[in-house]
């Protein structure tokens, strides 16, 4: 049976040796034009975004993609990438570009996910969802949602300081200083 997905391989040191196994991202998933990929500072936690294309077999059509983020942790004893938590993080609506931008703190315990086409607050306003790893629960828990203004594409880029205490979000189509002049927003993260 053909595999309709893709593989992610992590290469290390100057010899470009593969670190861990190749990660097979599930069936009916594909890279999209601006997919996100982020690796923790120590190289043991990886987040990768992809588009899942549900199929309407009755009409033989691919349905508008749903964007998702999977997180993996490298098991040092077996050199194998394993799912970190048992859920896949998903966008709030189809076609919201959830995961187009990803950022992670150095420890790999705080994740920011940009969804610049999200329409939760307004048309193409954008959203950044943050998640924090709960070691006791073994899950990624929602931490905070930040919403952009109409037509700003808020969340097109995201960056976290190494400690995770500050988050920078880009909104390239924000009109505050003229049409599509763009704006960057800096947030202080409390409670990390």
UniProtKB/TrEMBL annotation:
<keyword id="KW-0732">Signal</keyword>
<dbReference type="InterPro" id="IPR013517">
    <property type="entry name" value="FG-GAP"/>
</dbReference>
<dbReference type="InterPro" id="IPR011043">
    <property type="entry name" value="Gal_Oxase/kelch_b-propeller"/>
</dbReference>
<protein>
    <submittedName>
        <fullName>Uncharacterized protein</fullName>
    </submittedName>
</protein>
<dbReference type="InterPro" id="IPR028994">
    <property type="entry name" value="Integrin_alpha_N"/>
</dbReference>
<dbReference type="Pfam" id="PF14312">
    <property type="entry name" value="FG-GAP_2"/>
</dbReference>
